[in-house]
Design goal:
The chain has a five-stranded antiparallel β-sheet with strand order 1-28-29-20-25, with no helix packed on it. A five-stranded antiparallel β-sheet has the order 10-24-23-26-27, covered by helices on one side. Strands 11, 14, 17, 18 and 19 form a five-stranded mixed β-sheet that branches. With 715 residues, it is an alpha+beta fold. The protein has helices at residues 487-493, 502-505, 510-528, 537-543, 553-574, 597-603, 613-648, 653-672, 675-686, 699-705; strands spanning 13-14, 52-61, 74-80, 83-86, 97-105, 113-120, 128-136, 155-158, 164-169, 179-182, 186-197, 210-216, 219-222, 234-244, 250-260, 263-273, 278-280, 289-292, 314-322, 351-361, 367-369, 372-374, 377-383, 386-389, 400-409, 415-422, 438-446, 455-466, 469-484.
Amino acid sequence: MNPSNPQDDYKIKDTKPQLGERWPHGGVRGGGGWISSDRVTSTYDLVEQMYYLYVRVVKARDLPTNPVTGSCDPYVEVKLGNYKGKTQHFEKKMNPEWNQVFAFAKDKIQSTDLEVFVRDREMVGRDDYLGKVVFDMNEVPTRVPPDSPLAPQWYRLEDRRGENAATVHGEGVFSVRSKVYVSPKLWYLRVNVIEAQDVESEDKSQLPQVLVKAQVGNQILKTKLCPTRTANPFWNEDLIFVAAEPFEEQLVLTVENKVTPSKDELVGRISLPLHIFERRLDHRPVHSRWFNLQKFGFGVLEGDRRKEHKFSTRIHLRACLEGGYHVLDESTMYISDQRPTARQLWKQPIGVLEVGILSAQGLMPMKNKEGRGSTDAYCVAKYGQKWVRTRTIVQSLNPKWNEQYTWEVYDPCTVITLGVFDNSHLGGNDKPGPGKDSRIGKVRIRLSTLETDRIYTQSYPLLVLQPSGLKKTGELQLAFRFTCLSLAHMIYLYSRPLLPKMHYLHPFTISQLDNLRYQAMNIVASRLGRAEPPLRKEVVEYMLDVDSHMWSMRRSKANFFRIVSLFSGLISMSKWSRPRHPPHMDTKLSWAEAVHPDELDEEFDTFPTSKPQDIVRMRYDRLRSVAGRIQTVVGDMATQGERFQSLISWRDPRATSIFIVFCLFAAVALYITPFKIVTLLAGLFFLRHPRFRSKMPSAPSSFFRRLPARADGML
């Protein structure tokens, strides 16, 4: 490295690792010891591929006891259509461990559901039913060697009433093994609260003024307060939640009466399991339904009759699980999956991504063990719904993993993210107690910038921002290849919208998307944290860029200078324009008509401030919130210009090729077509009736949005 230019240490370096396989005892394969061709041969390419469904039942915890015997003799029954398998049973164990595997040949599978029952063995009569878990066979992931085994995960058992009974778990392993994880299947739950009837207030002399509060897990949303006092309020408001399969939470609705500004009165309540709601794939209307609320009696004299349902408030809902949207759990700038929730809407994959996580070099010591610096490093890769975690290399600053993973690619305009972390849960730290896994660095690779069928072997710098500044914490050595399965299909995708059509036909607001993305991140982190070894919350949040929308002066300056470098010429030209009217004081332009009193108080505050500390903190948080949105807009403006730059600089070779071919045909068409005809056709197209216009983005717009930008390189 040239010491006069320290920036070279932050650049990607080409490497030449020896990839592939060798015959034992030094023999050669393919004429040259190590495979040197562009296509690495699989170990299993001389036999037919066979598919089996493997079900590993490992352990359960907190199983309920029999009320008669006071104990539990549990066993597990795995049922797939007409095929059944049973584990051994244990006597008097509430936390049994089986660790048994069942295999079902794919060609003999005749059911769409896999049912796992936990039963209590009885000496007399039928075995007692403790709970079950049901898996949709269409959602079972496929493991392709050399992928690591799927990480086991906790699942809540449901009893006959659909309530939580206990928990069953996967393999109990150490937190150093490599594993493959699958993100939970996420749905948007749309609850349209239409109206309620027969709402009564505790004060019979006054009509109620009510609102509806809806809750799914930790997500709580409310309708607006009905503007009038009435026993039959009307709202017609949509409340949007994120839910994950298998559905563990319920939709809890409460109708509350606003007695005073500081007091709410519970009118009625109902809990609804999510599986009862219709799953729709498009924007067709969903049938509405009436539900009776559990109404509790008023007054002390009613006593034990509070739970009687002789007369009940009714609520009118139109609820559905939206299968036509893609539930965003990551930043759209670095999105790795764009498929809708419903598998029926998925297209065929257009390629395969193979990644070899080889090693890391020169890692910084992240903790102290026995008085000296140490790092227990592992690597996490995320693309689509599939996460992988390499094994942990203990006490090494130059760990070697040499693990290979594959992903199906459904869209080339996506990004794979890889992060390196220090495992702080192995013990031996000088600091007492387990801490968070420390981030060492992150790498992003946009697939559209890769040439197909080419093996890339590169060393990426691992960079992290710390309060003390930018630090290089090491280098990550990777080998990867993007193989195209259908070139025609891939080129066709460049003219398609980036997200499923429901995002354009019935779009969400910006604030809704931000909130839903945050909730989806929390759900993914929670579910992946149940696996063994767990993908901990701090790891998932770092990989999903949970704080990418937060304001920072650094990001704002970076986005500003991105724009300056793009539009410096346009800025100078804009000074030539002259306004048509003399300037005047515009109250609307100045936002002086709708100003909040607190904003005025802040504007006329002294500098430095003379306000109390709590007010200053509140205003600072508000400033960060507003500035974060401005920062996002500025970054989006810079991204548009960079996309145009990438188009003419061959950053995405396929996109530039498509653009050149289009320009060639357009030039020929314009040459042979009279200009008047072109103008006429353009006018008719742009002035066409709204009936002939679509909410879907046009092909040129979709093509432009798919172009890469320099945002991929932003820390």
